[in-house]
User: Fold this.
Amino acid sequence: MTWESIEQLYKDAGQEGLFYHVNSLSKEDKLKFHKNLLKVANREPPAKLIKDCQDAINLHEANGAVGSTSIKPLPPTSYQSIIGDEKTEMEYYKLGHDAIQRGEVAIILMAGGQGTRLGSTLPKGCYDINLPSHKSLFQIQSEKIVALQKSCPGCIIPWYIMTSAPTRQATEKFFQENDYFHLQKDQIVFFNQGTLPAFSSNGEHLLLANQTDLFESPDGNGGLYRSLKDNHIIDDFHKRGIKHIYVYCVDNVLSRLADPVFIGFAIKHGFQLATKAVRKRDAHEPVGLIATRNNRPCVIEYSEISRELAESTNEEGLLQFRAGNIVNHYYHIDLLSKSLDQWCNTIPYHVAKKKITYYDNIKDQYFKPEEPNGIKLEQFIFDVFPTIPLDKFGCLEVERSKEFSPLKNGPGSKVDNPDTSRLAYLKLGTQWLKDAGAIVKDGVLVEVSNKLSYGGENLLQFNGKEFNEDGFYLE
Assistant:
């Protein structure tokens, strides 16, 4: 497209303000600006971007307006707890483990986030939560794959790592420098999630990052679907014979990668999409809830149900709405192959009001706000849940202390910080040792490498061994 035609495309969408400074640009910078605008428009026409933002604002303002009478817990046919049910857990484990042995399982890691909140300039997966071993999140997770592969000799579990433009180069470099953490280089596939432009606070105007670029940011974990399509990941799944896909977030140090129990749960019941949940700590814990709306599976915000519903209990005395979302998902390849195009075109955008430093092309200076001044759009991975019939959707309730400790906040914050993640990881390994017969002094915590044990197995060698002080690291 010519410069004039691309400029007209944006002006027709009400974005003439983007071009106030164009006459001051060099020929080279004008060409760069043109290429950037064209790249954005090729993904989404400017008029559609503005409409998407307005729709997201309307959705945000209507949040909670849907009557809570349409919201119900998942039925027993879709919801199961394995807490304390070792027999069922072992049945599911064997089914999932057999699928791994056959080479049918792949893992997707969503790792587009930077460690900015943690005080780090590196991708979040590079972060050291200060374990005795000083392993990064990436290393902890890779060693879980190593352990699983040891349990089924000859199998390879492909690991697809979704990065973002700001984290891609640093992530690949980190893996290279660490020799891919004892995994094969070709079993790891890096691919980028997409980006979306940022908007003014009313959603009517696109913002500039500098003289030649629109301000863009990652498109949320729901951008996974478009990224799978744009990077032809489904084709790669088919080439490798993959049938079952495990998806998780980089910031959960306890996530059980390619969890055989979870995969076996989905296989046993013929679920095409499944998710894990942990019990809410209390009725008013601010966590997304896995439930149904109008007889379709969904994730609802805790603020969308009344206090009465939030506090309601079942005949066992458990909360009716207790399924806390932890963003651990299962997909069958048939569902992804069939639905990906539809999802890319239909799942909604959501509003995130942010402080955005942008280039003011009238004053020729950068504006750094002290309060939220703009909108970033994002998509949520769970917004596809309502497209799945209830008989093809499953939710497995797991023990929080064994599977969920997110790293969301920086050192010194109250919850979900490096200290809570480290403590959860050490407590779990220490409990494994105790279960294996080790004698651990009260208050002592021991780090158990996931290369040594994926989920508490292979530790009988420590039966009777005493651990009397912190700092032990078992490899």
Observations:
- Residues 418-435 form the longest helix (18 residues).
- The chain has two domains: 44-408, 417-475.
